[in-house]
Amino acid sequence: MARIIGGLTTSHVPMIGRAIAGGRQQEVPFAPFFDAFAPVHRWLDERRPDVAIVIYNDHGLNFFLDNMPTFAIGAAHAYDNADEGWGPPPPRRFRGDPQLSWHIIQSLIADEFDVSTCQEMAFDHAGITALDLAWEGHGDKPVAVIPIVVNAVAPPLPTPRRCYAFGQAIGRAVRAFAEDRRVLVIGSGGLSHELGQFGKINQSFDEYCMDAIVADPEALARYSNDEIVDLAGAQGLELITWLVMRGAVSGEVDVVNSLYFAPISHTGGAMMLIEPRD
Ligand code: DHB
Ligand code: FE
């Protein structure tokens, strides 16, 4: 049977990816952020997931205003990278797991989540940065990936409660897959930031979010989108990707490692690795 063995969350400021690409992790002011991934690397070496389900918000690369699904899932054999804001980067390809993708899609739709299915999907910096933090560098990843996009960009937006329930449905789908898979669920985004208002960070709300993701995700899911935007900035709404992850990694969890480091660029930078309490 497939099992969810852990959940990882991280901010995905493109500068993080640039630092990784240049091997400059120790030269940037947010070096402690990279150091916080050392325990993640050790944990991944030990637990060896086969699949990473990567929940993130597309930033106008694959979906734009003319075609904006609320929830979209990749069902491809492979996903290619795309422009991260500095022109087309060297090509990279990430292996998919179409069999598990289609199982999750069928299960979600039977569960009344009407997702868009994508047999082609450009992989955004939000997904790739998270993978490069988890498995250092730009080499092939030792996991298959299933990209899941949540609209955190253009209204009308899914509510935090709907995102949490969506994650729970993803968790049910994975646990009902008959073949063996060890699955890591990644939520990429946040925490507080607003690209049009650089420097808008709300550290106390971010710290509350990090506690609540672990201990009381339902309280977090009761916030409205407008409340989160007021508290954490327009792009702080990327927090909903963390809620999807936490819905999938259900029940009580232990924190393997977490760090809040602000600012990274103009963002409340944060990471967390959790695992289900057995
Ligand atoms: C930036 C982009 C993002 O997608 C994000 O979540 C934070 C920062 C940026 O361009 O700096
Ligand atoms: Fe973003």
**What is the CATH superfamily label?**
LigB-like
At CATH's second level, what is the architecture?
3-Layer(aba) Sandwich
Q: Can you summarize the main beta sheet?
A: 8 strands, mixed
Strand content: 15-25%
Strand order of the largest sheet: 6-3-8-2-9-1-11-10
Task: List the secondary-structure elements in sequence, H or E.
Answer: EHHHEEEEHEEHEHEHHHHEE
Total helical segments = 10
Structural category is alpha/beta
What CATH calls the topology is Protocatechuate 4,5-dioxygenase, Chain B
Give a quick rundown of the structure.
By secondary structure, this protein is α/β, with parallel strands linked by helices.
Features:
single chain, 278 residues, alpha/beta, Protocatechuate 4,5-dioxygenase, Chain B, eight-stranded mixed β-sheet, three-stranded mixed β-sheet, 10 helices, binds 3,4-dihydroxybenzoic acid, binds fe (iii) ion
Describe the structure.
With 278 residues, the chain is α/β, with parallel strands linked by helices. It has one domain: 3-Layer(aba) Sandwich (Protocatechuate 4,5-dioxygenase, Chain B). The chain contains 10 helices and 11 strands. The strands form 2 sheets. Strands 6-3-8-2-9-1-11-10 form an 8-stranded mixed β-sheet, with helices on both faces. A 3-stranded mixed β-sheet has the order 5-4-7. Helix 6 packs parallel to helix 10 (239-248). The mean pLDDT is 96. Fe (iii) ion (FE) binds at residues 12, 59, 126, 189, 235, 238.
